[in-house]
Amino acid sequence: MREAVSRRPPAAERGRPVRIRYATQVAIKPPTFLVFSTASDLHFSYQRYLENCLRRAFGFPGTPLRVSVRGRA
Questions:
Q1: 62 close to 47: Cβ distance less than 8 angstroms
Q2: What value does the mean pLDDT of the chain take?
Q3: How far is Cα 41 from Cα 58, in angstroms, rounded to an integer?
Q4: What distance separates the 2 farthest-apart alpha carbons in the chain?
């Protein structure tokens, strides 16, 4: 995840940079990942980018993935 974010950082939200804190896998059927960030929601295209990076890194070709984002409270 760190490599994917450093290659293409997320877009700023309201003029503030969005940082991805960490990500963890929370379920296995289907593989579900929870991303903790400073923003409550990431743009859908950036979530799709993260899904594709996870697919390539962990060998999930053709498997549906879920990526949820949890922002700072």
A1: no
A2: 91
A3: 24
A4: 37
pLDDT of residue 73: 59
Give backbone dihedrals phi and psi of 20, rounded to 5 degrees, phi first.
-90, 120
- Whose tokens are 């379920």? That residue is 27
Tokens representing 39 are 């923003």
Per-residue pLDDT of 38-52, as tens digits, reads 988 889 999 999 999
Output the six-digit token pair for 7. Answer: 């290659």
pTM of the model: 0.86
Contact in structure between 71 and 39 (CB atoms under 8 Å): yes
End-to-end CA distance of the chain: 22
